[in-house]
Design a protein that fits this description.
The chain is α/β, with parallel strands linked by helices. It has a domain of 248 residues: Aspartate Aminotransferase, domain 2 (3-Layer(aba) Sandwich). Helix content is 38%, strand content 17%. Strands 4-10-9-8-7-5-6 form a seven-stranded mixed sheet, with helices on both faces. A hairpin with a 5-residue loop joins β14 and β15. α3 packs antiparallel against α11, α4 packs parallel to α11 and α13 crosses α14. The protein is globular, with a radius of gyration of 21 Å. The two termini are 32 Å apart. 49% of the residues are buried. The structure holds pyridoxal-5'-phosphate (PLP). The site of pyridoxal-5'-phosphate has 15 residues, from α5.
Length: 421
């Protein structure tokens, strides 16, 4: 049976009414990518308030690698809800925070002993990684990359690359942030140290092992290793931002594992929480322990519901073989899209790692038209890229082969219409 089932033209009457209420109650700055209001979700399927069923290839922007309402996550949440909801880990701790920290410490690449700090979001985790790096190195500067995305808080916006719609109007940004091209020979960093900022002033370099919002840009093989090596040479901490690429998306638990390196600090969020807001900084224990009591934390960071959810997510990834599944899904995608590339000149590039796959179109107008056609035909997709011309897939990794084919059929139909226009 088809997963996509549309009872009404999309958006249906109930969603349309909610779009109006939303416009009156919520600021315009919170974008609305589809005019569909959710009623239920399961696996890779979302049902809206009008009873329409969609395949969800956005996954809440990469937060549902283990699937919507993963059964282990739901069971763990019910059990936790019956015990306690919040005490603040800093005031009255609970075991699940410690168990999750132990698990992330064990999963993080490399043999150096690790420690983990839990927070509420990817941006908050990035902020804390920078705080920790500055405190440890006693240096001010941070190096980041063109086309990077690290969040929307003021410090993380200064690390994020894209001006519109993210940065413009929010200036001034925190200082001592230096941006260099992504994927270029690591030796060019030496030039940056000569011409832009002295190496001994740099606390950290932060990189996405595969760029997410920037357009699913995969750097050349060996690049991350070479960059980490330059950092090591100069006493600069290497921070891997795995917020989007982590938790099996690329076919490994963390994308950084495609190369043999141990980041000093690793930032995770999104799929870690299985749908709940959770971020983490996992790093070498000596670095993580550098700040004194009270210097790190927050009221809700590592809330017990989020910890239980995350432990169930990791279990689901391990038990469900989701890393292997990601590689398989990536293959299905690439086979189809590479064949389209030969037929549809609109497609300029096909790229990705594991199930973190995308295709780039000639322009952002075609990309918008494609995603519009897709959600009107039962497939929810989000775009990426500095120029808004990349179609990326972030479907739950529990999507079936048949659902994958169904989604690709919708994309192909959209491309045929766009190509004929
Ligand atoms: N880092 C990366 C690589 C991301 O993709 C994102 C969000 O898209 C963030 C950080 C920020 O995460 P959050 O939206 O949870 O603050």
């Amino acid at each position: 049976m088809s997963s996509i089932h549309l009872k009404t033209p999309v958006p249906g009457p109930l969603s349309r009414a909610l779009v109006e209420r939303r416009a009156a109650a919520v600021p315009r700055g919170v974008s609305q990518l589809t005019p569909i209001f959710v009623s239920h979700s399961e696996g890779a399927v979302i049902e809206d308030v009008d009873g329409n069923r969609f395949l969800d290839f956005a996954g809440g922007i990469g937060c549902l690698n283990a699937g919507h309402r993963e059964p282990g996550v739901v069971a763990a949440l019910h059990a936790q809800a019956d015990r306690f909801l919040h005490t603040c880990f800093m005031v009255t701790p609970y075991e699940s925070y410690v168990r999750l920290a132990e698990k992330l410490n064990a999963l993080a690449p490399g043999r150096t002993p690790k420690k983990t700090l839990l927070l509420n979001s990817g941006a908050e985790a990035v902020e804390n990684a920078i705080k920790i790096a500055r405190a440890y190195t006693r240096r001010p500067a941070v190096i980041c990359f063109e086309d990077a995305f690290h969040g929307r808080t003021l410090l993380t916006l200064s690390l994020t690359s894209k001006t519109h719609p993210y940065k413009a109007g929010f200036e001034p940004f925190p200082s001592d942030v230096y941006r260099v091209p992504y994927g270029q020979p690591a030796a060019l960093l030496e030039d940056t140290f000569q011409r832009v900022v002295a190496a001994e002033s740099v606390a950290a370099l932060i990189a996405e092992p595969v760029q997410g919002e920037g357009g699913f840009i995969v750097p050349p093989p060996g690049w991350v290793t070479a960059v980490a090596e330059v950092c090591r040479k100069h006493g600069i901490l290497f921070i891997a931002d795995e917020v989007q690429s982590g938790f099996a998306r690329t076919g490994k638990m963390f994308a950084i594992e495609h190369e043999d390196i141990e980041p000093d600090l690793m930032v995770t969020a999104k799929s870690l929480g299985g749908g709940l807001p959770l971020g983490a900084v996992t790093g070498k224990a000596e670095i993580m322990d550098h700040t004194g009591p009270g210097a790190l934390g927050g009221t809700f960071g590592g809330n017990p519901l989020c910890c239980e959810a995350a432990l169930a997510v990791i279990q689901a990834i391990e038990d469900g073989g989701l890393c292997a599944r990601a590689l398989h899904l990536g293959e299905i995608f690439r086979r189809r899209v590479l064949e389209w590339k030969g037929r549809f000149p609109l497609i300029r590039d096909v790229r990705g790692l594991g199930a973190m796959q995308a295709f780039e179109l000639a322009d952002s107008a075609s990309t918008k038209a494609l995603t519009l056609y897709c959600y009107e035909h039962g497939l929810i997709l989000v775009t990426a890229g500095t120029y808004g011309n990349v179609v990326r897939v972030l479907m739950p990794l529990v999507v079936t082969d048949a659902q994958m084919d169904e989604a690709l059929d919708v994309m192909e139909a959209a491309l045929k219409i766009l190509e004929a226009a």
